[in-house]
């Protein structure tokens, strides 16, 4: 597997990065995890829209899904269209939410261009076995585990600390973890995001091989957030940056 970072800015697009979006590739298949604000442009530096094998949305906050509107326009009006509908996996209500976002009638909404599916605990997407669990967040949200052969990538999505995530990430080759809050800030909201220390502690308890820190808002420093994770995770801690590639 290969993981390419398309967007890693947390909560909003930043000056140097779109919001959440990651490209997972294997055996010629392209799986996009999240397509947040600004990510569609970055995606097209790596592949064309018809080459997208499937999209998985961790949840329906705009910084994780809103460029699906641009994708719909591209799929509908591109000179290359029509092409086969792109499968989109997400929380219940994704099709209706995206139709509303583009001011479309719910029927057909975007269904003629995109093929919507609700996440299950386990599904086969191209060559990947993809598992999900519910995350701790104010809206329905998922952490996602992508397996190929004997390798595993786990994406936390947006989540507060939780023991279920630790078990879910057990033994993963790479944990792509958000770290959107500051360590030791008494004003941190509960059940919303992870701190760097949380990310490192979860990685340590799960026994993952590598930790990649992502979803850092532009008002925080990625390198500082990664350094915080190193205080609780003894393994390799890396930082997601636009166009970074991680072999798994």
TrEMBL record:
Q: Which CDD domains match?
A: RNaseZ_short-form-like_MBL-fold (cd07716)
Start and end residues of each Metallo-beta-lactamase domain: 18-215
InterPro entries per the record? Metallo-B-lactamas (IPR001279), RibonucZ/Hydroxyglut_hydro (IPR036866)
UniProt feature coiled coil, ranges = none
Q: Note the SMART domains from the entry.
A: Lactamase_B (SM00849)
Question: So which domain of life are we looking at?
Answer: Bacteria
- Molecular-function annotations in GO: 3'-tRNA processing endoribonuclease activity
UniProt-recorded name of the protein: Ribonuclease BN (tRNA processing enzyme)
Q: What is the lineage of its organism?
A: Bacteria, Bacillati, Actinomycetota, Actinomycetes, Propionibacteriales
């Amino acid at each position: 597997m290969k993981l390419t970072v398309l967007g890693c800015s947390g909560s909003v697009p930043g000056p140097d990065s779109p919001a959440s979006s990651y490209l997972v590739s294997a055996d010629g298949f392209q799986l996009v995890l999240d397509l947040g604000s600004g990510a569609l442009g970055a995606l097209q530096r790596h592949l064309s829209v018809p080459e997208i094998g499937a999209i998985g949305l961790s949840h329906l906050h705009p910084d994780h899904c809103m460029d699906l509107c641009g994708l719909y326009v591209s799929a509908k009006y591109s000179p290359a269209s029509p092409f086969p509908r792109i499968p989109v996996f997400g929380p219940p209500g994704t099709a209706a939410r995206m139709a509303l976002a583009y001011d479309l009638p719910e029927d057909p909404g975007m269904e003629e261009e995109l093929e919507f599916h609700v996440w299950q605990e386990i599904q086969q997407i191209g060559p990947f076995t993809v598992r999900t669990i519910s995350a701790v967040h104010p809206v329905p949200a998922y952490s996602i585990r992508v397996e190929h052969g004997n390798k595993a990538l786990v994406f936390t999505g947006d989540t507060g600390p939780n023991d279920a995530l630790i078990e879910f990430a057990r033994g993963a080759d790479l944990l792509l973890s958000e770290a959107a809050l500051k360590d030791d800030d008494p004003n941190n909201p509960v059940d919303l995001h992870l701190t760097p220390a949380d990310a490192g502690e979860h990685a340590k308890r799960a026994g993952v091989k590598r930790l990649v820190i992502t979803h850092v808002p532009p008002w925080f420093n990625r390198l500082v957030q990664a350094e915080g994770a190193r205080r609780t995770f003894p393994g390799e801690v890396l930082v997601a940056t636009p166009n970074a590639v991680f072999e798994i």
